Amino acid sequence: MKDRVVQKGVFQAEVLSNQQIRHCYYRLNLILDPQGSRFFETVTPGQFLQLDLSGVSLPNQKLIPDNLKDSANRQIILRRPFSFSDVVVTPSLEGPSVKIEIMYCILGPATIRMMSLKKGDTVNVLGPLGSGFSIPQNFQNALLIAGGMGSPPILHLAGHLKRHCPEMNIVSFIGAKDCENLPFAIKIDNLKGLVLEEFELVRVPSHIATDDGSAGFDGYVTDCMRHWLEKESIDPSVSAVFACGPEAMLAATARLAKDFSLPCQVSMERMMACGIGLCQSCAVETKTAADHTEYQLCCKNGPVFDAEKVVFRI
Ligand SMILES: Cc1cc2nc3c(=O)[nH]c(=O)nc-3n(C[C@H](O)[C@H](O)[C@H](O)COP(=O)(O)OP(=O)(O)OC[C@H]3O[C@@H](n4cnc5c(N)ncnc54)[C@H](O)[C@@H]3O)c2cc1C
Ligand code: FES
């Protein structure tokens, strides 16, 4: 994966909408100020931003899940990283206007506060950060795979590829523990069976997998993709896998891609204190020569890495 210098900055963004998608998943739409728009117009899927949520107040107690009522009151000192599920650039003579969409899952004090953001509020963003998925030249098949909250950058990639490479065959595999934990709306299609509405909107076929079999394929999303690969014969020299999700899923995807000789890029997740390469909290062990490894920074050299280079200790 080639390193590139990312132009980043701190900007204000205005909230356009903030809606619950299902269960504990929400979708936040922001529009960047004119200066921020100039920096964010070249964002690629897999990149991310850091949100400052320290000044955002708690929502009504009734909205806070019971298991998070205690942690909700924790002070928020650090910014929180989020990927994009979509980025829309509208060019104009005065400069671009950039709208970004973030899908988030309620997990702790910062994401609880995000629930109370409403139209017209402003939030402070730092970005764009990191190095996103790189799109190989002249390839034909993109296999997208995501687990749980790894889905937003994969949805962004699906839309991006559809817009920029309309001839490409794109197929997605989205997994979660159970139906409740799928971060998208499920729809029944007469011909295709269960599909994900957000992927239908960008015209990318979706395969659903749940660990407990409550929706779609009964089992891990990587097994779902393995079955598909066994049935389809795709040429690995013009195909690639793009993955985002929990580390165990990424490790399984890396092994699966290797079994089918497919190049694979994985978007890694780490706890990130600064997001800009200063604190060293986000190390990812990577392979250098035959039996050497080195640590790279997930926020700066990643979060997307070549799967073959990552040392998975899972
Ligand atoms: C590059 C990147 C992109 C991300 N994109 C998204 C996104 O699009 N949508 C989304 O909902 N979340 C995303 N996350 C995760 C998001 O940053 C965390 O959910 C958020 O920081 C939680 O903040 P909190 O204060 O609500 O909860 P916290 O109290 O900070 O965390 C709640 C729990 O989640 C765990 N956790 C938090 N962050 C991480 C992490 N990075 N890796 C592993 N475990 C973690 C904590 O250990 C804790 O158990 C992303 C993280 C990274 C590094
Ligand atoms: S988050 Fe600080 S160096 Fe990566």
- Top CATH class of the largest domain: Alpha Beta
Report the CATH topology name of the largest domain.
Rossmann fold
In CATH, the homologous superfamily of the largest domain goes by the name Nucleotide-binding domain of ferredoxin-NADP reductase (FNR) module
CATH architecture of the largest domain: 3-Layer(aba) Sandwich
On the 0 to 100 scale, the average pLDDT is: 91
Tell me, briefly, the overall form: globular
**Pairing-aware structural class of the strands and helices?**
alpha/beta
Descriptive account of the structure:
The protein is an alpha/beta fold and 314 residues long. The chain folds into 2 domains: 9-129, Elongation Factor Tu (Ef-tu), domain 3, CATH 2.40.30.10; 141-309, Nucleotide-binding domain of ferredoxin-NADP reductase (FNR) module (Rossmann fold, 3-Layer(aba) Sandwich). The chain has 6 helices and 18 strands. The strands form 4 sheets. The protein has a 7-stranded antiparallel β-sheet with strand order 4-3-7-1-2-6-5. A hairpin with a 2-residue loop joins strand 1 (9-22) and strand 2. The longest helix has 14 residues, at 151-164. The protein is globular, with a radius of gyration of 19 Å. The two termini are 22 Å apart. The model has no long low-confidence stretch (mean pLDDT 91).
Summed up:
The protein has helices at 34-40, 109-114, 151-164, 197-201, 221-231, 247-259; strands spanning 9-22, 25-32, 48-52, 80-83, 86-90, 97-105, 122-129, 141-147, 169-176, 186-189, 193-196, 206-210, 217-218, 239-244, 264-267, 283-287, 293-297, 304-306.
